[in-house]
């Protein structure tokens, strides 16, 4: 079977996210067992252990869980930023026609759950959790689609991924506007100025990995100290990474042929080292390769495995350890509200808005996707695990009871959504051959 050169990168992405979902489930299970075992004190003590730097003039001394949620998750958001930029420039969101289908789905999946949350909520103290059911966990949802194999078309996976990316963008904006602390304008101004410098250099075609990392760390720290959630620095930094290549494929191939011929003609050392001529050609090859690669694509490719296989499962391990003990008080109305918003808010919001837009001829839905599949994927969108837990931590940072209640609601709602979505797609009549 000949691999489609256009679809194969996306198919690889789906496989990575699918396996990441399995790791995420494993990490969540371990966290729940650990937090509810006789070793629960060690679980809490580990994530509250403080590390960092502290001097008379500067302090960056935080519990391990905050290094994960503020630091490692900034890398996660950086990757999201790269994906969003790529999709808007050359991907599934780069034209109005391509954007319309997932955009309507994303809008329905964000607006309806929020309205439902506000309508159901009766406690003013829990109202600030309205952003929790907004986003979809790509890793978990794609893992379920992968498990269904040929019962779902690739276009359905593309739809899910595209509207989940739009969801993430919406969640990022919500975090920036509603879940950041008291802002120190002077520090924020310096951070923005540094970002503008990077944007200007990118516009002029200059890119340095060393400069980006150095300024990225500085910008992250300034965001943290300014009262803006530092993960936002990750997504804003991603927009400064250029997508264009410095040389095109024909020029690279011509130079690759020359370098190959020069290596063949160079003196070959009998020792397990390269000759001076070979070293020179290898250096040239590395230089031409750097010019040929898109910096954005290169970073996205290198980071994806780290985020999928390490950062997200590690985040789940640190954050999913809710104590499931009847003696621990919970805010049950909050739990129920989140479950309803994830299960019904997402499914009704996405499917109703998409089907209404289809009836009004505002969007074109691929011919291999039927209405029942749209409904099934709409339920899978209720798996809001990673971003939902992240927003819950921001919304209820000063109330452990509300945080635990929100996490339990997220776990239950995500599980119900996953089961219903899987069953709908598993037993729908259309089968993709």
TrEMBL record:
List, in alphabetical order, the Gene Ontology terms for molecular function in this entry. sodium:proton antiporter activity
Gene Ontology BP terms:
regulation of pH
Q: Which residues form a coiled coil?
A: none
The record's section on Pfam families has:
Na_H_antiport_1
Which UniProt keywords are listed?
Antiport, Cell membrane, Ion transport, Membrane, Sodium, Sodium transport, Transmembrane, Transmembrane helix, Transport
Bilayer-spanning residue ranges? 21-40, 60-80, 101-120, 158-179, 186-207, 213-239, 306-324, 336-357, 369-396, 408-425
Membrane topology value: Multi-pass membrane protein
Predominant cellular place of this UniProt entry's protein = membrane
For this protein, the record's InterPro entries field holds: Na/H_antiporter_dom_sf, NhaA
Q: Report the Gene3D superfamilies cross-referenced here.
A: Na+/H+ antiporter like domain (1.20.1530.10)
Gene Ontology cellular component annotations, sorted alphabetically: plasma membrane
Entry annotated with the keyword Lipoprotein: no
Q: Which domain of life is it from?
A: Bacteria
The record's subcellular locations are:
Cell inner membrane; Cell membrane
> What's its catalytic activity?
Na(+)(in) + 2 H(+)(out) = Na(+)(out) + 2 H(+)(in)
Q: What does this protein do?
A: Na(+)/H(+) antiporter that extrudes sodium in exchange for external protons.
Q: Which family does it belong to?
A: Belongs to the NhaA Na(+)/H(+) (TC 2.A.33) antiporter family.
Name used for this protein in its record: Na(+)/H(+) antiporter NhaA
């Amino acid at each position: 079977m000949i691999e489609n050169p256009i679809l194969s990168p996306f198919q690889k992405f789906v496989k990575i996210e699918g396996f990441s979902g399995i790791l995420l489930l494993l990490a969540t299970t371990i966290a729940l067992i650990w937090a509810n075992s006789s070793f629960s004190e060690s679980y809490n003590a580990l994530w509250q252990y403080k590390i960092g730097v502290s001097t008379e003039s500067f302090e960056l001394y935080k519990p391990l869980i905050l290094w994960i949620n503020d630091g490692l998750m900034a890398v996660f958001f950086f990757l999201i930023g790269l994906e969003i930029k790529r999709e808007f420039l050359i991907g599934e969101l780069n034209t109005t026609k391509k954007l319309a289908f997932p955009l309507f789905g994303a809008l329905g999946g964000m607006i309806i759950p929020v309205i439902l949350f506000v309508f159901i909520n009766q406690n003013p103290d829990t109202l600030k959790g309205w952003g929790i059911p907004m986003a979809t966990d790509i890793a978990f949802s794609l893992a379920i689609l992968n498990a269904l194999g040929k019962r779902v078309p690739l276009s359905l996976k593309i739809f899910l991924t595209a509207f989940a990316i739009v969801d993430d963008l919406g969640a990022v904006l919500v975090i920036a506007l509603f879940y950041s602390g008291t802002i120190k304008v002077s520090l924020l101004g310096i951070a923005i100025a540094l970002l503008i410098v990077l944007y200007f250099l990118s516009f002029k075609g200059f890119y340095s990995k060393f400069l980006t990392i150095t300024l990225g760390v500085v910008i992250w720290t300034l965001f943290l100290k300014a009262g803006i959630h530092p993960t936002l620095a990750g997504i804003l930094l991603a927009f400064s990474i250029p997508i264009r290549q410095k040389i095109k494929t024909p020029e690279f191939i011509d130079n690759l042929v020359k370098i190959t011929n020069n290596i063949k003609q160079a003196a070959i050392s009998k020792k397990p080292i390269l000759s001076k001529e070979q070293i020179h050609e290898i250096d040239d090859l590395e230089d031409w390769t750097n010019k040929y690669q898109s910096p954005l694509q290169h970073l996205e490719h290198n980071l994806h495995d780290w985020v999928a296989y390490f950062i997200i499962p590690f985040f789940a391990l640190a954050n999913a350890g809710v104590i499931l003990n009847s003696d621990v008080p919970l805010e049950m109305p909050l739990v129920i509200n989140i479950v309803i918003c994830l299960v019904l808010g997402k499914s009704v919001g996405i499917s109703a808005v998409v089907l209404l837009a289809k009836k009004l001829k505002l969007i074109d839905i691929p011919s291999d996707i039927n209405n029942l599949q749209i409904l099934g994927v709409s339920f899978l969108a209720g798996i809001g695990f990673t971003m939902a837990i992240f927003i819950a931590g921001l919304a209820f940072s000063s109330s452990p009871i509300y945080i635990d209640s929100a996490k339990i609601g997220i776990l239950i709602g995500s599980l119900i959504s996953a089961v219903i979505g899987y069953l709908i797609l598993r037993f729908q009549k259309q089968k993709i051959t």
